[in-house]
Amino acid sequence: MVDQSAPVVDARGAQLVIISSVVSARDMVGTAYRDIGVPLLTWESDLFDSLRFTGQRKGVDFGELAKEHYVNVVNAPSPLAGGVAAGKRWVYPRDGEMGWGRPAPGATVVATVPGEPDHAVLFGYEKGATMDYDFIAPARRVAVFLGNRSFEHLSADGQSMFDAAVQWALAGAQVDAREP
What we know:
Layout: E1 17-19, E2 40-42, E3 62-68, E4 70-73, E5 87-90, E6 96-101, E7 108-113, E8 116-125, E9 141-143, H1 156-171
Parallel strand pairs: 1-2, 2-9
Antiparallel strand pairs: 3-6, 4-5, 4-7, 7-8, 8-9
């Protein structure tokens, strides 16, 4: 575990890079983590554009809801769904922060904000998939809906989806010793 000031080269040889929402996104704009050949999982929606998960317009291509506790599982067969059934599922016991994005067509969308199919809250890219800006994913990439203080409040369905996201990202891990 390192903080946002650690050089990206420190991630070489890692099996998974996780960027939580407590990083200072402002300090990571243009982050070199987008280029690293290691699977990456994040729930910092303000980095979705820099990491090429989405376009660059905050509030249009990515954003955060202050009060939501449901997701709509739209791709239950995906391993990213963690066995959670299709439909509206609660992931927090009461309203909390939830990040969302409008991913590129190369993404696998698993869950969205209920009633807002363009606002994906759990999605991933396979290695080699086309992300936004015609960027090719150098390894698996996953976006998760968590907010700054929501992990400890996850429901069983929310925990299953988070665990599945980590496992899916790790399943694509191939240690890449190249310079990022």
